[in-house]
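Meet our chain:
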Amino acid sequence: MHGKERVIAPLLRRFLGLRVETVHGLDTDRFGTFTREVPRPGSQRDAARAKIAAAFAGNPGVRVAVASEGRFGPHPIVPFAPLGVEIVLLADRDTGIEILGQFVDLDAMWTHAIVTDIAAARIFAESIGFPVQGIIVSGCKDEGPCPESGLFKDVQDHADLERAVDNVIARCGAAVVETDMRAHCNPRRMKAIKRATVNLIREFGTRCPNCDRPGFVITERIPGAPCALCGTPTRLIRAEASACAGCGHRAKNSVGPPAADPSLCDACNP
């Protein structure tokens, strides 16, 4: 689990009464790696479910399993800004209950640089807080990472960094240096996983008013709050819909102000 249990286990023990144990011998890298040797099959949630299924398969007496999965990339609206999405998924084998906690990090520690000498690599390392924040060195091809041409994951200190960068530059002429996104090497990511776990606990505590099943969560946010000036529906959220995965009960609640500020109206501000 790359040390994720350090932030997940205490919270689940304290608030849900669950004693978390890591599954020894389970290679989670087979569900995808950040360093691109193994592509992740399916979605982020699919990967978390696959980890849980593997845990259940190897531990037939276990009723509840939990898995975490992260996703990183450029922000969809502000492409130069990094975006991280952490999910923590809990599944109950007997009841079929599945609870998802998530946290969106708008300032994730996810960045990289292409360097042609060790001096540039040192500047990058300093900018990310290495060695507290881990670093990955890989080969470079067509101005992108090429792990087939060289890959160094466990770069512990500046001497390791220099050896790795020199090795890759000798092969490729340049090296890609990037933040290590494995949780135990990325302190900011570990904090995000903790916050996703807190969100899971909150979602677990939201019970269906019809059948009392945990996880009566918001499944839809409905826009359309009317403009206070002209009454035209706007993109401002006017209601939230919650649903139960067990009995199918749904509820809709109004949220936010009854009318939107005219500055948010496309008719008043075409």
In short: The chain is about 25% helix and 25% strand. The first strand starts at residue 64 and ends at 74. The mean pLDDT is 95. Residues 112-179 form a domain with the Dna Ligase; domain 1 fold (CATH 3.30.1490.20).
